[in-house]
Amino acid sequence: MTYASDAVPPFYHGTRADLSPGDLLTPGFASNYYDRTPLSWIYFSGTLEAAAWGAELAAGEGAERIYIVEPTGDFVDDPNLTDKKFPGNPTQSYRSRDPLRVVGEVAEWNGHAPEQIQAMKDGIARIRAEGGEIID
Fold first, then answer.
1. Which residues, in sequence order, are CB contacts of 81 under 8 Å at separation 6+?
2. pLDDT tens across 75-134, in order?
3. Are 117 and 41 in contact (CB under 8 A)?
């Protein structure tokens, strides 16, 4: 499904990048989850839980952060989750070829238990070892 950039927020993006209000998150960078060819999409969510996964699984040593973002163009459901794992998009996961503008940062949020994070990282490593794609 395609959505217009004036869809109702809030939207979130989890990462380890240190950003400020007004900064733009753009496609063209490697995935947060593993090194590979730059992505042609930028991913975001309408739920804090999905954004928390983004922050917790992001590569790098920086602090885990969740930003409040607004799309600057049209966006679509993220097929990595909606088509493969969660029909109907209950995670409210989206992607866009247009930048996301940072409008703020979520100061306090609840992360997942360390065991859950490790299980997810192990699953990602297993998919990579088998030659599978994590992000379409």
1. 89, 91, 93
2. 998 887 666 666 777 778 899 999 999 999 999 999 999 999 899 888 878 877 876 655
3. no
Average pLDDT of the chain is 85
CB-neighbour burial class of residue 58 (10 A; exposed 0-12, middle 13-18, buried 19+): middle
Look up tokens 């998009």; give the residue: 89
Contact yes or no for 22/14 (Cβ under 8 A): no
**Amino acid residing at 73:** G
pLDDT tens digit sequence for 13-42: 999 999 999 999 998 877 766 666 677 889
d(CA 136, CA 104): 28
Ranges of H-type helices in the chain: 48-57, 79-82, 114-129
Q: How far apart are CA 121 and CA 115, in angstroms?
A: 10
Angle at which helices 48-57 and 114-129 pack, to 10 degrees?
60
Contact of 73 with 17, CB cutoff 8 Å: no
Share of the chain above pLDDT 70, in %: 79
